[in-house]
Please model this.
Amino acid sequence: MQELAAVALETARSKGASYADIRINRYKQQSLFAREDHVQNANAQERYGFGVRVLVDGVWGFAASMQVSKEHVARITAEAVSIARANRATMHDPVELVPIPKAVDTWQTPIVKDPFRVSVQTKADLLLAMNAAALKAGASFVNSGVFSVAEDKYFASTDGCAISQLLTRVWPLCVVTVVDKGTGRFDTRAVLSSPMGTGWEYVESYPLVAEAAQAAEQCKEKLAAKSVTPGKKDLVLSPENMWLTIHESIGHPTELDRALGYEANFAGTSFVTPDQLNKLQYGAAKWMNVVGDKTQRDGLATCGYDDDGVKTTQFDIVKDGRFVGYQTIREQVARYGKSLGDTRLKACCYADDYSSNPFQRMPNVSLRPHDWGGKKVGWEQMVAEVKDGVLIEGAGSFSIDQQRYNFQFGGQVFWEIKNGKKVGMLRDVAYQARTPQFWGSLDMVGSDHFYKLGGSFFDGKGQPIQTNSVSHGSSWCRFRGVNVINTGRKI
Model:
């Protein structure tokens, strides 16, 4: 790796590059899917190659290859320099990079059991056991699956960085469907497991088989449940529901490239424009504290260094309800840091493949649990103070506008709350709001005893599209007077 990197960096310098880096990466992916009593699909992929990025006269050039040899590294580096020179015709402002510390280091996801050392048979047996439990409990159909991913990454740059990392992620999933043969109506419920940046031990520790059976039982309850009466209601939301709301209404809007308007793929730009920094009251001052954190254990975006060679860290996005910080990368800090009054390095650069150009991607973005002085505070304490409301578990459908301002979210399971008690299941539930009004209605956040990570294994951004894995943590939360709609009504 060091010899290959030396070829790239020396070639780039000799051809006039002021900066260069190389990423030599190997990616392993494995997925299994099962339906009812049989395995449908088993897939394994491995990709290996390198990408070289150079700065020439303040302009980026990038090139990549799957042929990893000294000769190809030299040729591809020269190609990247040529591309940078060709790109000068489109340059408006030269790219600058803020200095970073030299890093020579190794990092890997802390795991107990490597998922790639677990046999395919063991994984298939788990999926079929989930399916059998769901079918026994009354499921009409059931689909299950498990993903395993490993990124083996080597990064070197003319800043003196030489960084090796091994990132591991797993995701077990199961979706259960029950059909009412009399009416033809059906309902679904997904197991509430989340993808995680960890090893197979997470899969073994999660009660997947038991929850698959529970999902079938709850599907039957949903079919028999009454349809929700729309109107303003209090919401008690589980961590498994909160992650998606955090992702869409806080995570994406606070990406600096989206806020500046030069990223608009996947639901547009952002209402959180630079004039709002340190001014926008994003939500309730007492309860809303949101951090970006690529150091959080088990987080999908967690790593030791980003793809700029910047050491990962934790930073505030919303503090005491006020918007205080964007997600940024090294290049953005150099260009906008002084004008924004924020020159911190936040390590938010990532490329999803050796052949992809690195750009700004979301870190783990999480709502801090409230400090209750050691007291356990969860959904029961929240429900006790609600006269008319809905408790929602799990993430469901969602919709958000082109500025990340107006949104609608569903869920997996819905419970009616009346006079401080959870009284029965509901169906056809979704909640609508404008982002600041919704977070302004937050009036209770649970303790860290109930804090959980949820997340997206395949979060899309950019054009050409790249995918990133990212987690979002939360405890239970309560919101007052949110608009609840009935998704089953027909006009």
The chain has a mean pLDDT of 97. Residues 107 and 165 are 5 Å apart (CA to CA).
